[in-house]
Structure formats: C-alpha cells, structure tokens
Specification:
CATH class: Mainly Beta
Number of strands: 10
Structural class: mainly beta
Low-confidence stretches: 1-9, 11-16, 18-23, 248-253
CATH architecture: Beta Barrel
Strand order of the largest sheet: 2-3-4-5-6-7-8-9
Order of helices and strands: HEEEEEEEEEE
CATH topology: Porin
Helix content: under 10%
Distance between the termini: 72 Å
Number of domains: 1
Strand content: over 45%
Shape: elongated
Amino acid sequence: MKKILFATIGTVALGLSAPASAADLAARPYTKAPPPMVAAIYDWSGFYIGINGGWGTSRKCWDFVTPADGTLVTDGCHNASGGTVGGQVGYRWQSSNWVFGVEGQGNWADFSGSNISPTAPGQQDRTRIDAFGLITGQIGYAWNNVLLYVKGGGAVVGDKYDLVVAPGLVGEGTVFGSARETRWGGTVGAGVEFGFAPNWSVGFEYDHIFLGTRNIDFTFAGAFVQTERVHQDVDLALVRLNYRWGGPVIARY
C-alpha cells in the first residue's frame, strides 16, 4: 500500500510541475507577414519628343522624254545615299499590351549620287535629297519596357537634280540644267523601342518611302533644256531617342 501511495503522489507532482515548466519557456516572437509582390509595368502612354539620326539611300532611275512624241530613252540608274539627322514629336496611348500612336517627323538629309547616261555619254545625271518628312500612325505591342511597332502614312521629300558635263570631257563638272521639286508619297516602317529609364527610350527603325514616277523639266538660266522622267524610292535606317511626358510605371499586384 505504501508503494502504491508513493507512486500516486509522484505522478500527481509530475503532472503539476509540467504546466509550470511550460510557462517558463519564452514566447514565440511575432513575425509580420511579407508584403504582397508588386510588379512595375512600363507605361508607353503620353506625349514624346525626340531626335533621330542614321543613313538613307534612294534608288533613282532616269529616262529622257523625247520632245516629239514622248518616247522614253533610258538615262540609267544610281543610288543617292548618305546621312540624315532630325527630330520627331508624337503621342501614344496604351490599352493592355497594345500601343497606338501618331507622329510627325522632319529630317535634314544629304543623300547624293550620280551616273553617266548610257545613251548620252556626255551627260552625267546627279541627284540629291536634302530633306524629308513623315506623318504616320502607329500600332504596336509592348512587353513591359520593350515596344515592337509598325507605322504608315504620308511622306514628303525635297529633291534636287542636275545635268552635268561628264568627267573626261571639256568642261567636265559644268552644270547645264537643273531642277528642284517637292515630291509627296507614302511610307511604311517598323521599329523596336526600349524604355531604359522612367521617361526615356531608345529605338531602331526602318522606313520605306514610295515616291513613284514624275516628269521633271530641267532649265538653265531660265531657259528650258529637256524633260526627264525620274522614278525613285527611299530606304531609311534610323536610331531614335525619345523623352516622354506621362506615367512612367503602373503597379500590378
């Protein structure tokens, strides 16, 4: 009986001491829940202004127009190539990943070239584009700060043409006929743009300008010389830098 009594008392004492020991343990520290993840999304909406520069080339093909009956006699082709620099201003708005915009662009250029006529060896045909402008609409798709877009609209080009005495002849380099024109046409292009800061982006763009065929009357000292039919298109490769006014980022949880 004594052994049973002592065993019962020991069991009760151990049970009473367990809560006391648990009370002596330090409480678990409070840990604040981590904040929800927030992804910064680049927003392409807003007005922008920028500069551009690069290279261009124009394929020019000339045909002499016979005064008697308008028959065409080939005067050959050449590429008028060179550098360009200019600026652009526009507005874009973004809906989900789609980006829409309008833009006006104006550039100074020095696209020049020449060829010797195969049918009139004494004649050198010389051309230069000294300016062009683009008025376009845009549609693009954005992956955060990367925008891929296509564009299209109207174009205008300032052309200068010269008839020059061919090299190797007496008076070589002498201009004996000139003409200037402002030619309108259409343009299509595509580009990619990268937002590298909240309001800054850099891009690369290719454009093709369709200018068609026109008859050009050449004069010298105010007198008519001859008529040439000139066909031309222009290809452009440009680097662009833009600064935009608008919300640089939006938050997405």
